[in-house]
Specification:
Layout (H helix, E strand, L loop, with lengths): L15 E5 L4 H12 L3 E5 L4 H6 L9 E4 L4 H7 L5 E5 L9 E2 L1 H21 L2 E7 H9 L5 E3 L5 E3 L1 E2 H18 L4 E6 L1 E3 L10 H10 L4 E4 L5 E2 L1 E3 H13 L6 E5 L5 E2 H11 L6 E4 L28 H23 L31 H19 L7 H19 L8 H47 L3 H21 L4 H6 L3 H37 L4 E6 L2 E5 L7 H9 L1 H20 L7 H15 L4 H9 L1 H4 L6 E9 L9 E11 L2 E9 L12 H8 L22 H17 L5 E6 H8 L6 E2 L2 E2 L5 H8 L6 H22 L4 H13 L3 E5 L5 H7 L11 E8 L13 E10 L5 E8 L7 E8 L8 E2 L9 E5 L3 E8 L4 E8 L9 E8 L6 E10 L3 E5 L2 E2 L5 E7 L3 E9 L1
Parallel strand pairs: 1-2, 1-4, 2-3, 4-6, 6-10, 10-15, 11-14, 12-17, 20-23, 27-35, 28-36
Antiparallel strand pairs: 5-9, 7-8, 13-16, 18-19, 20-21, 21-22, 23-26, 24-25, 27-30, 28-29, 29-34, 30-33, 31-34, 32-33, 35-40, 36-39, 37-38, 37-40
Helix pairs in contact: 1-8, 3-4, 4-6, 4-11, 5-6, 7-9, 7-10, 13-14, 13-19, 14-16, 16-17, 16-18, 20-28, 24-26
Length: 1032
């Protein structure tokens, strides 16, 4: 039976190292260190009795194998893992000894086989060479060509040149095959591991000292030598092999200092008392002079340091020499002579002879060369392809796959063949599952993440009016939903397998809803995107001024933006299509129920549903953009008249009319503008009709006569449509000589909100701060407390804010648009169309106040302050409406109202207008508030207005009955009740509804309890309540 140490082991789980030429002291030290770290080591050397005896060092471990040099060609098929290769090429009995071309080729092919083996397993490769050989090679001028006397020549190589070629071949594998290599040039090894077979000056001196002979020096004894102790060399080679930054590098491994032959002789005499005298061989002049040689960088560069001093190494070398002398004496039975000093490392090798397998003894170097030559023949045979059986092909393919996978994934290299086979089976199963389930899931997850992260942000983009940016985002979301919709059918087979096909159909339906929604939103963004381009291109051509001609004028003709605006009109079909898809998708999501899903997936669907349903009133919020071309004068000029209201001097319109702005736009640009105080306008009294006077006096306690009417007098008209008709027909178009397309009002409080998104607003040398806005305006009045001067200041404030808004419309689009929306929603900005072109715009944005007048019954309060001393208010007015509504059994309705307000100035007039259906006899004034002598009822064609004049009172109350809905036969009635806020004031509504027994009342979808319902809310705008009354 073959001993286990001569058998190659299957050690896939252990890092595997090969040490070629490693059965010497250096190789054994390296092998011992690797084995202690859990590695498996293959020692390759000549099989001799002496080498076999060295294996006794590894009796306690199975992680070592000893192979002959001839084994290298077979390792490629026999081993399954290889991590490190140490190739020792630093030893030679004589570096200058010539070798033939055939021998040179044989040795080089052997090294090539070792490198090829390393390359196959992607192993780290370390080559050792000799510093001495490198020194001699570069110091001599020998060309290696020797001419014979017969004028023929033969090429002769030396071991030095073989070493140089070895280094070149290793570097070639590094560069062309990307092999991880390093080259280490060793100094002469001394200490316990010294090789006395080498013909070196150090060996000669040490051997002579051990025998007590004289120490003979070559030449002048001044040649320099490099040395290294065996243990330090072993540690250094391991350090070089395992360090990351040594790949492709050449290093020296030696003591830092060199030593001359003469200094070595003196050191030996110092350490060995029996050493003879130092003498020189004067006749020895055959060797060329050694030039100064600088070796490669030392391994100290990567952190290696010698641990054994040179003195100690010399002492150990002397001891080793004495042991060698004694071994020779014992072996020969005679005293050792001075002419027989060296013993080969390679002797008494064992080899199987061709016939009778007898042992043959040869010299060490010649034996090594013969075994390498036999390996070379094997290599040559392997290059000839032979036919392989099918099982061999299967096995080779399996191991080739294993080696490839092990090189690609390091963890596979630690598997056994059975484990690797199971790994392949599991991998195939996983691949099938991956393709069928996991890959589509990952694909869907990627798109789901895109949707979940971008959909909420898209809503923010929508609210910020960044339609061009939103279009790009919507495209990505729409693409993600489309990709998910396309990939879902791949789950059909897996869904049927687990009886989940109906749920999969439901999921497809919801993804289809999401896809329609995203496509609809994409179409909307696409249709509205030109609006953003219009704002980006817009250039403010107004200039501030302060003169009798007004506070704003045109610096240059307005730029033509018709291309951008025409694109909005051209894309209107996309807008309508997008609105339809979006609303249909939202409706489908509300009407369908999610299938049974895992919690995480269900939460994702629910979150997506919530995000989509958050897009409420999209049409209402965006319809205005589609009519922008008509609003800014595409095709024909458009003229706006804005009345600037001072709501610190409150009126039913919302505030006293302080100034006006007449603005004409054409093709998106401003072509004319005029901003002035109303005190500059003189009214032609002759054009005032009786109907005009009735509208002006309807909410007044004392009627104005035609000569008393000023522009500010029109503030007593609360219904903007009535004001529009009165002013446009009787005053404005006549006065300005232009056709007015739309009339609007803007309150001072709205200007304060606009100022919050602007900076550096200066009026009369005072910088306006949004937080101290009214105080700053009072400071701007500079002590002038006339109403007319305040009108001038407020008009100038409007001009500055309007001008700065146009400057910032490109960069502050979101803030400005939000401010305008907030002003409209909080009843600070109103606009009515005089021509049909603006009807959609007005309806969609609720910028006028006649919605409350369309209710079946309504109540619209107002306050009028005309005291000329109220000019420096620093706060706006707060009011409270306390309304009690009682529904009787016959469906008639009784109301009781108490208006609470602050006392401002010497007097103020409180008015509440009701529909003409109210019975006059039912109106009763609360004498505890404003007495009846200062109260009156004004009647017009369509309204009844109760007016009270306050002289310090802070409440005004009365009750009335509306029999419009009285019906004793019907079982149910349905009507709307409009409640107007106090224009220009901050209004709080406290509304209580009570009803008699036997009735059921539902308000805005909420059924009231028997004892009634109290609702206390802040009114930012008028409200209309839908009331249903049923008999029980």
């Amino acid at each position: 039976m073959i001993p286990k140490q001569f058998q190659l082991k299957n050690t896939i789980k252990h890092p595997t190292s090969i040490i070629i030429g490693g059965l010497n002291k250096l190789g054994i030290e390296i092998a011992d260190s690797l084995i202690k770290q859990g590695g498996y080591v293959v020692l390759v050397d000549a099989v001799t009795e002496k080498n076999i005896s060295k294996l006794d060092n590894f009796k306690s471990t199975d992680l070592v194998s000893f192979l002959d040099y001839t084994s290298i060609p077979h390792l490629e098929d026999d081993i399954r893992r290889l991590d490190y290769v140490f190739y020792f090429n630093h030893e030679s009995e004589d570096f200058t000894e010539e070798i033939s071309t055939q021998e040179f080729l044989t040795i080089s092919n052997y090294l090539d086989a070792a490198l090829s083996l390393s390359s196959k397993f992607d192993a780290r490769f370390l080559l050792t060479t000799s510093i001495k050989a490198n020194q001699v090679l570069f110091a001599t001028d020998d060309t290696a060509y020797k001419l014979s006397m017969s004028k023929s020549y033969t090429q002769a190589y030396s071991n030095m040149e073989m070493q140089r070629y070895s280094e070149g071949l290793v570097m070639e594998y590094h560069e062309k095959a990307n092999l991880n290599t390093r080259i280490v040039r060793l100094g002469e090894i001394i200490g316990d591991g010294i090789n006395f077979n080498q013909k070196t000056a150090f060996n000669e001196l040490i051997s002579a000292a051990a025998e007590g002979d004289d120490l003979y020096l070559r030449n002048d004894g001044l040649e320099n030598e490099w040395f290294i102790h065996t243990l330090d060399a072993a540690y250094g080679l391991i350090k070089a092999q395992f360090s990351k930054d040594t790949n492709g590098e050449v290093y020296s491994l030696t003591y830092e200092n060199t030593y001359t032959h003469l200094s070595i002789a003196y050191k030996i005499q110092e350490l060995e008392d029996q050493a003879g005298e130092i003498k020189f061989r004067s006749e020895d002049t055959s060797a060329p002079p050694i030039k100064i040689h600088k070796p490669a960088p030392n391994l100290t560069r990567i952190g290696w340091m010698p641990r054994i001093s040179f003195d100690r190494a010399v002492t150990q070398s002397l001891a080793a020499a004495k042991i060698s002398v004694l071994e020779k004496a014992t072996a020969n039975g005679v005293e050792v002579s001075n002419h027989n000093k060296s013993v080969n490392n390679f002797q008494n090798f064992l080899s199987l002879a061709k016939g009778d397998k007898e042992l043959v003894e040869k010299e060490g170097d010649s034996l090594k060369k013969e075994r390498i030559k036999q390996a070379y023949k094997t290599i040559q045979l392997q290059r000839k392809q032979r036919k392989k059986s099918f099982p061999e092909k299967i096995i080779n393919a399996f191991w080739s796959l294993f080696i490839f996978m092990a090189r690609t994934f390091s963890f596979i290299g630690k598997m056994s063949p059975v484990e690797f086979g199971m790994f392949i089976i599991v991998s195939v199963v996983f691949l099938i599952v991956y393709v069928a389930v996991i890959s589509p899931t990952l694909y869907i997850s990627r798109h789901a993440i895109t949707v979940s992260t971008q959909l909420p942000g898209l809503n923010e983009t929508f609210e910020a009016k960044k339609y061009d940016v939103g279009y790009v985002q919507a495209q990505e979301i729409s693409n993600s939903f489309s990709q998910i919709e396309n990939i879902l059918p791949k789950y059909k087979g897996a869904a049927k397998l687990v009886s989940y096909d109906s749920e999969l159909d439901d999921i497809k339906s919801f993804i289809s809803f999401y896809s329609d929604f995203s496509e609809g939103l994409q179409n909307i963004f696409y249709a509205l995107a030109p609006f953003n381009q219009y704002l980006k291109d817009f250039e403010n051509n107004t200039v501030l001024r302060k003169s009798s001609d007004g506070y704003l004028s045109i610096e240059s003709p307005g730029k033509d933006y018709v291309n951008n605006l025409a694109e909005i009109e051209n894309r209107s079909v996309f807008y309508e299509k997008g609105i339809q898809k979006l609303e249909k998708a939202q409706s489908s999501i509300k009407d369908n129920t999610l299938p049974v899903l895992p919690n995480q997936i269900r939460n994702l669907f629910m979150s997506t549903n919530e995000d989509i349903l958050e897009y409420a009133n999209v049409k209402q919020k965006t319809k205005v953009i589609t009519v922008i071309p008509s609003m800014v004068g595409v095709d024909k000029p458009t003229t706006y008249l804005f009345l600037i209201l001072d709501n610190t001097r409150i009126s039913p319109l919302g505030g006293e009319i302080a100034g006006y702005a007449l603005i004409t736009l054409q093709n998106g640009g401003i072509v004319d503008i005029e901003v002035k105080s109303v005190d500059d306008i003189e009214i032609d009294k002759e054009i005032l009709s009786d109907e005009n006077l009735r509208e002006i006096n309807k909410r007044r306690f004392i009627n104005l006569q035609p000569d008393d009417v000023r522009v500010s007098s029109f503030g007593s008209i609360s219904n903007l449509l009535e004001l529009d008709q009165t002013l446009s027909e009787s005053l404005w178009e006549e006065y300005f000589g232009v056709r007015i397309d739309a009339l609007g009002t803007i309150q001072l409080e709205a200007l304060q909100q606009m100022s919050s998104s602007l900076q550096n607003l200066m009026v009369q040398g005072i910088q306006l701060n949004p937080e101290n806005f009214l105080s700053d305006i009072t400071r701007a009045q500079a002590g002038n407390e006339s109403v007319a001067y305040k009108h001038e200041v407020i008009t100038e404030v409007f001009a500055n804010i309007f001008h700065e808004t146009l400057n910032k419309i490109n960069s502050n689009t979101r803030e400005i648009m939000l401010s305008i929306e907030k002003m409209a929603s909080e009843d600070m900005l109103h606009l009515v169309a005089i021509n049909q072109g603006f009807t959609d715009f007005i309806n969609q944005n609720d910028l006028y106040d006649n919605s409350v007048y369309r209710a079946n019954t309504y109540m619209v309060p107002g306050i009028l302050i005309e005291d000329p001393k109220v000019v420096n208010s620093t706060s706006y007015i707060n009011t409270t409406l306390s309304l009690e509504t009682k529904v009787k059994g016959d469906f008639s309705v009784e109301n009781s109202l108490l208006v609470t307000f602050p006392s401002v100035g010497s007097s103020q007039e409180i008015s509440i207008c009701l529909p003409e259906t109210v019975r006059l006899s039912s109106i009763k004034i609360d004498e505890g508030t404003i007495p009846s002598e200062r109260s009156k009822v004004n009647i017009s064609e369509d309204e009844i207005c109760i007016v009270g004049r306050s002289l310090g009172e802070t409440t005004f109350g009365f009750s009335w009955e509306d029999e419009t809905f009285k019906n004793t036969e019907s079982d149910s009635i349905n009507f709307t009740m409009g409640i107007g806020n106090v224009n220009g004031a901050r209004t709080e509504l406290d509304h209580i509804i009570e009803f008699e027994r036997g009735l059921q009342v539902n308000v805005d979808g909420q059924t009231l309890e028997a004892n009634g319902l109290g609702s206390k809310v802040v009114l930012n705008n008028d409200v209309v309540k839908n009331i249903i009354i049923n008999r029980q």
